[in-house]
Write a structure and sequence with these properties.
The chain is mainly beta and 1011 residues long. Helix 2 runs parallel beside helix 3 and helix 4 packs parallel to helix 5. It starts with 16 loop residues before the first strand and ends in a 6-residue tail after the last strand.
Length: 1011
């Protein structure tokens, strides 16, 4: 026990916990079973969260001396909320960096030196304490403090702690008094621990998790370790409890019972004499096993009774029976090969930072379940205990990751240089690193949801992390150990029980899987979801059916880490790295989520939900084949809905309830109506919940499949429309009974399309070769490699014009020259006797040019045309490499609502497979675009390409003055293997040396005599 604090501890990696109690399980003790069942405030726990007195010092030397004294005057101090962060309460500066250390370029440091620029927050909490008769010990717990802190109670030094994301517990029995007490805490932004807490996140400081007191009875369950050993046929189990008991009464007893979800005894109450260490074992017959599919939990009840029979303490713990192991180099859960359809999750809230609420956690878990995500990696630190309880209850597989990352010590600008890596092989860092593993495991060890312990993230390799992995295995043989960093340092390949990679390209993954793999394979991070991304994700998920050793991956990542600039209600502006004058900064790299910082779903989720669905559904015209990918559950909780759409409109539906066992494939026949009229049909099959669950309402769709077919017939010709061509010197005008069009030789296109006095053309349609660059485009230097197409987009000029005013259907053909390119695309407008203007755009192809980003035409319309309706793939935006989650239908949306709220404006809102699109005003008047020959890609946005490209934040976009409609033959995919160089995969690129054509018609709609 140290009685005096020492500021030198901050810079000493061998001092990371002073007077801290050993870590223990996160079970909750109650004074009785009745108190536990009420679920109200626990009499054995006293929260110290709330408003604290607070003072900030800019550095260590400026911190207030003697502030911890019992009589120190804090009347002039500010207040701060605990849990919470200093920076997010107006104290200190927000800073975002990814791999570099936050002091990079400000101070020349090497581990374990501590930056002089080191904020110090001094906290005071006055509170009233009332002891309970029979209390044996009072323990003060800090669930999370970043980054290092000293503690005093009533003027006496209590202890010191590091490791921001696991509890620090202190015995204050001899220091606390009945009545008024004063708790003083001094929190330091930087310490030697900062070198191994270099995660990709905002660098925040403060007491960000709960602070509380526990009044432990003299007879107390100190620690509990539950293991469930299953027989090889999984029909029986041995429930083993390892309990550490604190007690003084020799007549004390311990009662243990186990019941199922219905309250039936599985293990009837059994009584034991209390002992310091107890390891009772119970036989359990035919247990219902725990999995994410069927998260069966049992209620373990442990009652500690004093010698007189009174209850000293009651513990209710929910446990799951399951076995996780490697069989023949493949991971198995309860004897079945498992595939992780996972996501990485930072604890994040745009207002509170990592001080997330229970409501945040509950939202996240329900979101994961609704969108077929079955696994979470706690990137890159242990989460709050409540999160694991939710994962146990709702059913999610968890990789629990230790709070360790030292990325900036070995990788600089994507170049590996580990000359001063920590922890590496350094013995002086060994104890603090192993302590982080110990603190994580001991707290979290009883959660059925945790299948894998992770040694941390991006900390290279070395002996220290290898020792960490061996400690985890020795302490808990029931789980596997993960660490990706061995990929960069193969000296200790045994650190990880699985081959884990980040952002490996699909082809590289497949090559590894074909080369006699000796371990199971996962992608601990993949499909980098920054901005408009997640293209080509199916190239990874398809591997799960081809290679047994491929066992899934974890998307990077769940939520954008953007901070609120306003109140979050009326003002929902968000700040990214660099927006707070934080330097150094990694700027926009903090927004990589499939949901926004406000937890709004982005269109990327549509693809994730489809690729992660647990049933493969393949409809045909007369039957649907369904493969149940689940390992344990049948389709009993689901109904099968069949819908038939004709040209996007539902004309038939039926519902069935097929019984499909786990792993089984069945073909379910159905009868469609006879004598289908000519048209395009889509058979859509959905599996939906029959009843409400914890995470979704009845009717929620869990899986979907679609089949499209045609019923052909001769198309009846409509009565021809009379055409009146008017040939001027510079224009060709064509009038019909409903509208008139004007084609300009000077301005290179249709300058007017007018009907009922309404002008639909704000400007002539323009060829488009460029899209507003996405985050992925910027990251791979697409602008540098493909700048010729941006120049072509902006500066092409009209070439020869061929006008045919004498033909049966007047037409104008325009040829265009592109700056510096020997390619001359053409656009032809033909006014047909069907009353439509038929448009073709032809790109002839050219050698030696970069791939085309897009090829099509853009129409500028007045902003009053602010909504659209289309028949194509939807309902959310989709792209050539991100459309498996889309389905055929007729969808409507506002033009403003089509602007996806990415943190940085970029290309968005595209719709592939479009048969027709209508852009209208509030009265239904507008233009109808109809594909000819094959579908086009469609978009309608309130901004032009360059307006989106040049705005750095949504609020920098100008006032809306137009509606931009894009009709494209093709647009390249969005990619997403990573956001710093990975190309779009070849099938989703547009080779510039191949010809490309676009054909469609356009006609006014919603006018007098016109529908």
């Amino acid at each position: 026990m140290s009685s005096q604090p020492n500021i030198a501890w901050l810079a000493d990696p061998q001092v990371f916990a002073v007077n801290r109690l050993d870590p223990v399980s996160d079970h909750i003790a109650w004074p009785s079973a009745e108190a536990a069942s009420r679920g109200t405030d626990n009499p054995l726990r006293q929260s110290l969260s709330g408003r604290w007195a607070f003072s900030l010092a800019e550095n260590v030397d400026a911190r207030p001396e003697g502030f911890h004294a019992r009589d120190f005057d804090v009347s002039g101090w500010d207040e701060i909320e605990v849990p919470g962060y200093m920076q997010l309460q107006g104290v200190g500066k927000n800073q975002y960096v990814n791999t570099q250390y936050p002091w990079e370029g400000r101070e020349a440091l090497r581990p374990p030196e501590v930056a002089r620029d080191n904020l110090v927050g001094s906290y005071i909490r006055d509170f009233t304490f009332s002891s309970i008769p029979g209390t044996g010990r009072v323990v003060l717990t800090f669930d999370g403090v970043e980054t290092a802190f000293f503690v005093w109670l009533n003027g006496v030094f209590v202890g010191y702690g590091e490791d921001s994301f696991t509890p620090s517990r202190f015995d204050v029995t001899d220091l606390i008094a009945d009545g008024e007490n004063r708790l003083a805490v001094q929190v330091f932004q930087r310490s030697s621990a900062s070198w191994i807490e270099d995660q990709d996140f905002w660098r925040l400081t403060g007491i960000f998790r709960d602070v509380w007191l526990e009044k432990q009875p003299a007879l107390h369950l100190e620690d509990l370790f539950v293991t469930t050993d299953l027989s090889d046929d999984f029909t029986a189990a041995k429930l083993k409890l390892a309990m550490k008991i604190a007690f003084a009464d020799p007549g004390a007893r311990v009662e243990v019972a186990l019941s199922d979800r219905d309250g039936n005894w599985v293990v009837e109450p059994q009584h034991f004499a209390a002992a310091d260490d107890m390891e009772p074992v119970f036989d359990v017959a035919s247990p219902d096993l725990w999995s994410a599919e069927a998260p069966n939990l049992y209620d373990l009840a442990i009652t500690l009774r004093n010698a007189d029979g009174t209850t000293a303490e009651f513990i209710a713990e929910r446990i799951g029976f399951r076995r996780f192991e490697i069989i023949d180099r493949v991971m198995h859960l309860n004897g079945r090969r498992i595939v992780f359809n996972g996501v990485n999750r930072h604890e994040f809230n745009p207002v509170r930072g990592r001080a997330v609420t229970y409501e945040d956690m509950l939202f996240d878990v329900r979101f994961f379940k609704r969108n077929n995500i079955n696994a979470v990696r706690t990137s890159h630190y242990p989460n709050q205990s409540a999160f694991y309880r939710l994962c146990d209850e709702y059913g999610l597989y968890v990789i629990d990751e230790a709070n360790l990352e030292s990325h900036g010590s070995w990788q600089k600008d994507n170049k590996i240089e580990p000359s001063w890596v920590v922890p590496g092989d350094r013995p002086d860092w060994r104890d603090c690193v192993l302590d982080r593993a110990r603190s994580m495991l001991e707290r979290d060890k009883n959660h059925a949801s945790i299948l894998i312990w992770s040694c941390g993230n991006e900390s290279f390799g070395g002996r220290v992390i290898y020792d960490m992995s061996n400690w985890l295995r020795a302490r808990d043989p029931s789980r596997l150990v993960h660490y990706e960093g061995i990929f960069h340092d193969r000296r200790y390949d045994g650190t990880s029980d699985m081959e884990s990679r980040m952002y490996a390209r699909p082809g590289d993954v497949e090559a590894w899987l074909k080369d006699d793999p000796q371990k199971p394979f996962i992608l601990c991070e993949y499909t980098h979801a920054m901005g408009n991304s997640c293209g080509g994700m199916h190239l990874y998920t398809d591997l799960a059916d081809k290679y047994p050793h491929y066992q899934g991956g974890f998307i990077w990542d769940y939520i954008d880490q953007a901070l609120a600039l306003g109140d979050g209600k009326v003002d929902r502006r968000l700040g990214l790295g660099g927006d707070f004058d934080d330097r150094p900064s990694d700027y926009t790299f903090c927004t990589d989520g499939i949901v926004t910082a406000w937890r709004e779903e982005t269109p990327k989720v549509q693809e994730v939900r489809a690729l992660y669905q647990s049933f493969a559904i393949s409809p045909a015209r007369e039957a649907v084949t369904i493969r149940n990918r689940n390992l344990f559950v049948s389709s009993a909780a689901l109904s099968l809905g069949i819908r038939l759409l004709k040209d996007g409109v539902a004309v038939f539906s039926t519902t069935m309830e097929p019984q499909i066992a786990a792993g089984e494939t069945v073909t379910v026949p159905f009868d469609l109506p006879d004598d289908l009229a000519p048209g395009e049909y889509a058979v859509q099959a959905s599996l939906c919940l029959k009843a409400k669950t914890l995470w979704a309402e009845a009717g929620h769709e869990v899986a979907f499949g679609e089949h499209v077919f045609q019923v052909e017939s001769d198309v009846a010709a409509s009565a021809p429309v009379a055409l009146k061509p008017i040939r001027g010197d510079l224009h060709l005008g064509v009038e019909t009974s409903d509208c008139s069009a004007l084609f300009s030789e000077i301005f290179g296109g249709m300058t007017s399309l007018r009907a009922d006095g309404i002008e639909f053309m704000r400007r002539p349609p323009r060829l488009t070769f460029w899209r507003a660059m996405t985050d992925n485009d910027r990251g791979r230097n697409h602008g540098f490699d493909s700048a010729v197409w941006q120049a072509a987009n902006l500066y092409y000029k009209r070439g020869p014009v061929v006008v045919d005013a004498e033909g049966d259907e007047p037409s104008v053909r325009y040829r265009f020259s592109l700056p510096g390119l020997a390619v001359e695309p053409e656009v032809t407008y033909r006014v047909g006797h069907d009353g439509r203007i038929h448009v073709t755009a032809d790109f002839p192809g050219g050698e030696g040019l970069p791939n085309l980003p897009v090829f099509g035409l853009q129409f500028t319309m007045a902003p009053a045309f602010d909504r659209f309706r289309y028949y194509g793939l939807g309902p959310e935006e989709n792209y050539a490499d991100r459309c498996r989650g889309a389905r055929l239908g007729i969808y409507e949306r506002s033009v403003a609502g089509n602007l996806t709220p990415y943190s940085v404006p970029q290309e968005c809102g595209n719709r592939t497979g479009t048969r027709f699109a209508e852009v209208m005003d509030e009265n239904g008047r507008g233009l109808r675009f109809v594909a000819e020959g094959k579908p086009f890609e469609f978009n309608a946005l309130p901004y032009g390409t360059m307006e989106l490209e040049t705005a750095e934040r949504p609020e920098e976009l100008p006032p809306v003055t137009k509606t931009m409609v894009t009709i494209a033959a093709r647009q390249m995919g969005v990619g997403g293997d990573d956001s710093w160089g990975a190309p779009v995969h070849d099938p989703y690129n547009i080779p510039s040396n191949e010809p490309l054509s676009l054909a469609f018609s356009v006609v006014p709609i919603g006018l007098k005599g016109n529908s």
